[in-house]
Amino acid sequence: MKKSISEIVYETSIKEIEKLNSLTVTDIEKHPYLLKISQLKNSHVLALIKQQDIEYKEKDLSLKITMYGLRDDRNNVMKDHIKLQEQKLK
Amino acid sequence: MSYVRYNVWLTRQKVWTEEKLNWLIKSKEVYNDREDILNAFNTHFNTNITLKTLRHVSAIHKLYLPKAKRLLQKSLESSWISARGFTKKYIGDEISNGKATYIKTSNESKRRYDNYIVKQRYLYEHYHNVTLNTNDFIIFLNGDKKDFSKENLYKVSRCVCSALFGSKFHIENSFQTLSRIKYYEWKEKINLLNR
After folding, report:
1. CA-to-CA distance for B141 and B160, rounded, in angstroms?
2. pLDDT tens-digit profile of B30-56?
3. pTM of whole model > 0.80?
4. What span, in angstroms and rounded, lies between the C-alpha atoms of A49 and B44?
5. pLDDT in the model for residue B4
6. Comparing C-alpha atoms, which of A42, A23, A39 is closest to residue A31?
7. Is B108 an 8 Å CB contact of chain A?
C-alpha cells in the first residue's frame, strides 16, 4: 500500500531524530558528513511538504474555477429571464 | 403643463399623535419603570418602538417619563461593579477574552494576571505531571481551541511553534500537524548540532 506524504514525513523525521540523539560531539567531529546527510534528507522532506501544499492549492483553484463557471451560467440565465419579462411588458 | 413638485410634508401622517402623547402622560401614574411603559405602549397601540425612540420623544415633548431602573441596574452590575473588583473570582474559576481561556490558580500576587494561567498550559501540566518553561508552547493538534482533551494538546518549543505557523502551509488534520511538528523538531536538532 502506498504511504501518504505526511506518513513518510512523520516516520523519517522520527528516525532521524533518534539517530541524531544517539550521536555524541566526538562522533560529529570525527564524521562531519553524518550531519550533512541528515541536512540533505531534511531538504528533501521539505520538498515533499511543498509538493503537498502545491497539490492542495491546485485542487482549491480547480474548485474555485468551477464555482465561478456556475456563477457565470446563473447570471446569464437571470439576464435572459429579465429580457423575457421586459418583452412581456411591452 | 408646468411641473409641480409633490410636497411630502403637506400630506404627512403624524406618528406621535396627541392621543399617544396623552396616553404616555397618564401612564406615569400607573407604571414606575420606563421598560413597563414601553411594553404596555407596544401592546396597546400595536407598535414596535424601542427605548431609544421613547427617550427621544420624552425629551422633545418634555414628558418627564420615569427612568428604566432595572436595565440601568443590570448594566451597572455588568460593567461598573466588575471593573472595581466587587465581583470576586475564586481559585478554579475561568475567564476568557475571546481568544484564550484562563484559570485562576492563586491569590498571592498583587498583579492581576500573575494569578491566572492559560487553560491548555494548566491542563497539560496536570495530564503529564511536568512543569513548563517559558520556552514551551502548547499547540492544539486538531486546530479547535475549545478541545482540551489529552490527545489534542502537544508541547513544542518556541522555535518550532514560530516555524510551524510562520511557514503558512495548509494543514488539514491533526496527524499532518504532528508530522510537520516532528519535521521542524528534526530541523531544530540539526541547527543545534551545527553550532
Report:
1. 14
2. 999 999 999 999 999 999 999 999 999
3. no
4. 68
5. 67
6. A23
7. no
Residues of A in contact with B170 (CB under 8 A): 53, 56-57
pLDDT per residue as tens digits for the range A32-43: 898 899 999 999
Assess B179–A contact: CB distance below 8 Å, yes or no: yes
The residue with cell 464555482 is A67
C-alpha span between B141 and A81 (Å, rounded):
50
In the beta sheet, which residues pair with residue B138? B155
CB of B104 within 8 Å of a chain A CB? The answer is: no
pLDDT in tens, B143-186: 888 899 999 999 999 999 999 989 888 888 899 999 999 999 99
Grid cell at residue A50:
511543498
Q: Can you give the length of chain B in residues? A: 195
Interface test with B, best of A10, A21, A58 (most B CBs within 10 A): A10
Is the pLDDT at A21 greater than 80? The verdict is yes
DSSP assignment of chain A equals -PPPHHHHHHHHHHHHHHHHHH--HHHHHH-THHHHHHHHHHHHHHHHHHHHHHHHHHHHHHHHHHHHHHHHHHHHHHHHHHHHHHHHH-
Amino acid (one-letter) located at B106: S
Return the domain boundaries, chain B.
15-73, 119-194
